[in-house]
Design brief:
The protein has 245 residues and is mainly alpha-helical. It is 85% helix and 0% strand.
């Protein structure tokens, strides 16, 4: 009902002339622009590019963040040495790094994927470290007494118990990866949904701008939903295993 109310308010404000259609097109104009772009294949062409960039950045960020989170949780010396710099790195806006990445890596997938990785990196590190630090020390000590080594302890005890917190960070990072892809595409100009936004804005095509934003929301929601399904599947697997025991 909230959505219906917003649509009615939107339609009424534009149809009555209270807001210029140039600034806020009618819902019908946005839907028509969305359908026209779909028929022209724009969503498939530009959307797949953004999806590829966001997934590549997510994988790259996880490849670095997960081992680093484990190192921070395992060693106070490493945590004391690196955590201040990790926190300080978040003060640098991603949009300020995008031109540098293009300068260093050129155009195409690599700079956008790296920008996505930098954006998703921090929440992944924080959640991984938090999940490992919150584990019950009595369980870990008991496993060590039973002869569990570092890798056996990580694989059989720490990783399964910390995985829910890690997956929560992954869900957040999935949404942020799309943001990173769009920021990179703004700098690169004409690729992905960010590039389509730039083109629509340059052509003063406000309905297409709104339709592209709606498509970005759908893409982010779909990726977030997939991450949530993975988390639910893991929870169900753990529950079934505990019931079996």
């Amino acid at each position: 009902m909230v959505g219906v109310f917003i649509l009615l308010l939107w339609q009424g404000s534009t149809q009555s002339g209270a807001v210029s259609p140039y600034l806020l097109p009618t819902p019908g104009a946005v839907v028509q622009s969305f359908v026209t772009a779909w028929q022209a294949g724009l969503w498939l062409t530009y959307g797949l590019t953004t999806l590829q960039e966001s997934l590549a950045g997510l994988a790259l960020g996880a490849l670095v963040a997960l081992p680093l989170g484990y190192a921070l949780a395992s060693s106070r010396w490493i945590a004391a040495a690196l955590e201040p710099y990790l926190a300080a790195s978040q003060a640098i806006p991603a949009v300020a790094l995008a031109p540098l990445l293009v300068l260093w890596l050129g155009y195409g997938l690599p700079p956008v994927a790296l920008l996505c990785a930098l954006i998703v990196f921090f929440p992944m590190v924080v959640n991984t470290t938090l999940g490992l630090r919150q584990l019950d020390r009595d369980i870990l000590n008991a496993a060590r007494v039973d002869g569990a080594g570092r890798w056996s302890l990580l694989w059989n005890i720490q990783a399964p118990l910390a995985l829910p917190t890690v997956l929560a960070g992954l869900r957040t990072s999935v949404a942020l990866s799309v943001t990173g892809a769009v920021v990179g595409e703004f700098v690169l100009g004409d690729q992905g949904l960010g590039g389509l936004l730039t083109i629509a804005r340059g052509n003063f095509d406000t309905p297409l701008v709104f339709a592209t934003l709606f498509t970005l929301a759908l893409l982010t929601a779909a990726l977030y939903g997939c991450a949530r399904l993975v988390e639910m599947f893991y929870a169900r697997t753990v529950l079934d295993a505990s019931e079996a025991h």
